[in-house]
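Our preliminary data section would be incomplete without showing what the modeling component actually yields. Below, a chain of 496 amino acids is followed by its predicted structure, encoded as tokens that our downstream tools consume directly.
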Amino acid sequence: MDAVTYLVSAVRAAAFSGPLRQRMSADLLVDEPFRQLAGSTERLCDAVAAGDLDSPRLRQEAALLRALLAQCRLAVDSIADHLEEFGISVDIVYEADQLRARVRRIEQLLDCVLSPAPGQELLRLTLSLVRTLEQRRGVRSLLSRHYAQLARKVAERSAETGEHYITRTGGEYLAMVRQAAGGGLVMAATTLVKFGLYALALSAFWGGFMAGVNYAISFVLIQLLHFTVATKQPAMTAPAMAAKLKELDDDADVQAFVDKVTQLVRSQVAAVLGNVLLVFPAALALAWLIAQALGRPAIDAGHAMQTLDTLHLLGPSLLFAAFTGVLLFASSIFAGWVENWFVLHRLDSAIQYNPRITGVLGRRRAARWAHFLRGNISGLAANVSLGFMLGLTPAFAAFFGLGLEVRHVTLTTGQIGVAAATLGMDAVHSQAFWWAVALIPFNGALNVIVSFYLAFHLALRAHNVARVDRRRIYRALRARWRHAPLSFFAPTRGSV
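Predicted structure:
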């Protein structure tokens, strides 16, 4: 009973702390169960000290304390609902788990004290103590338990964004092609700026940093212009696909999932084609205009051949393309974490109502900024983080003697276009040019597949999706491929 008293004090102290109390359901706190715990425990201790375990008074006090503990557990469980809606905090998840465990421990102790044959209850308590001791010795269980909710929230926020990248109709498909074409046009300019930064011969770090600034500005500009970059989509669409796996109860659900896969594949095809088919001629045209303005090529012939050689299909570029897919996935994770942090701390409300901010911007402008950041913080975080990862990763790898580069399919195609502008028609007769062109589809495929796989795998674990009948899915996909193969590449008559 001393242990019960100590635990009740810890439960009350944790429950009255601001971060937990503010996130519990107000309806479940009307009867103030946490406040009543101390008095109920004290009366039960007195009844136990009297020595009669079968007295009506003891049974009544024990039933009251158990009822209060049940109410406390429901109140603690309501914290999870608040976190799901307003953002996950690992600290709060940990404190809620501790509070829930203390309530459960009090119930186990009561079973040992009040049971007429306490041997079995004491055995259960001992086993529970042993498991707790074992868990405290390892970090893996702690991390897997307390970061599960954060991973799920990141995946869910990515899924919400990813739904916008999936086209379902012919009009949405053409809109995706136009958005990707606009992204390709911006990336052509990005490629020329990259070569310009290379000509400055900056140190490794500052060269990588400026390259990251170039990429980040370009990606943010693409976002603000409502264009798209194809390779950023898979990490966002994968969680949306993983969430659908929980709904495969019958054949109709399987067909709906296959429809979703079909829409996703052709959306990605549209985005990649829009990027690649415009970035090459745009980069070539910009390089030609620069050559006409300066009286010399944008890059010299030696640099052009070196660029094509580094993009050789049989070189390490395929490995670099797969590694770039990892960076694309990492940027989506960072974006989900930043959005969760933004929502958790209610920064949109802080921006909208902070006296200093409203004094500088005015109330209406502050409200517009708050609304804009709430809707775009995820994209801004993804674009800026991806830009700096693409720029700085080669510099940091070089510091450790690793010849690691990035191969983003849109940038790769733009580089080939700039090199072709310098070489002119001689490029057509160069094997290096055609080997570099052959790299483009493999580059795009690896960027897409690696980032999608990593995001899909994380989403499956975050959503606790059990093993599904993969044979049903594969069979349905093969049937769709046999009967409507073109639906995977473009909307067709009768396709979904």
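Residues 251-294 form the longest helix (44 residues). The mean pLDDT is 84. Preliminary results of this kind motivate Aim 1 of the renewal.
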